[in-house]
Amino acid sequence: MTNIKIANIILKQLGGNKFSFMVGGSDYCIIEFGIQFKVKNGRNQKRKAVNLVQIVLASDDTYTIRTKYIRGFNISDRDEVSGVYVEQLIPTFESMTGLYTSMGNSVIVLGGK
Question: Is residue 104 part of a domain?
């Protein structure tokens, strides 16, 4: 499978355009066996800033998710989780960045009782 197909599959599994809107995704790049993109205002569980995410497909059909922080020319590694199955991809992303990928099943009632 080509790197562009892998990147497109990962983005689709995350939620596509809705995902991108919710996390402020930008600067999407195809990397070897995965995808890299920037997010806005992410924070990991230790409350450290996160603004770059890499998701890479491993040979055993699991993913490795890495979060980083970039400021100027300095890159700081934040977290890395390996062995993530596709059903765990969104919850793992959310816990690593503090960003929600959807509005969930929220219902907003305007002017009702």
Answer: no
111 token code pair: 């002017």
77 within 8 A of 68, measured Cβ to Cβ: yes
| Percentage, residues of the chain above pLDDT 70 | 90
Contact 92, 84 (CB under 8 A): yes
The structural domain count of the chain equals 1
Convert the pLDDT of each residue in 23-44 to its tens digit.
999 999 999 999 999 998 778 7
Instruction: Identify which of 52, 107, 28, 27 has the alpha carbon closest to the alpha carbon of residue 12.
Output: 28
Position 93 in a domain:
yes
**Quick check: is 62 in a domain?**
yes
Strand 49-57 relative to strand 63-71, pairing: antiparallel
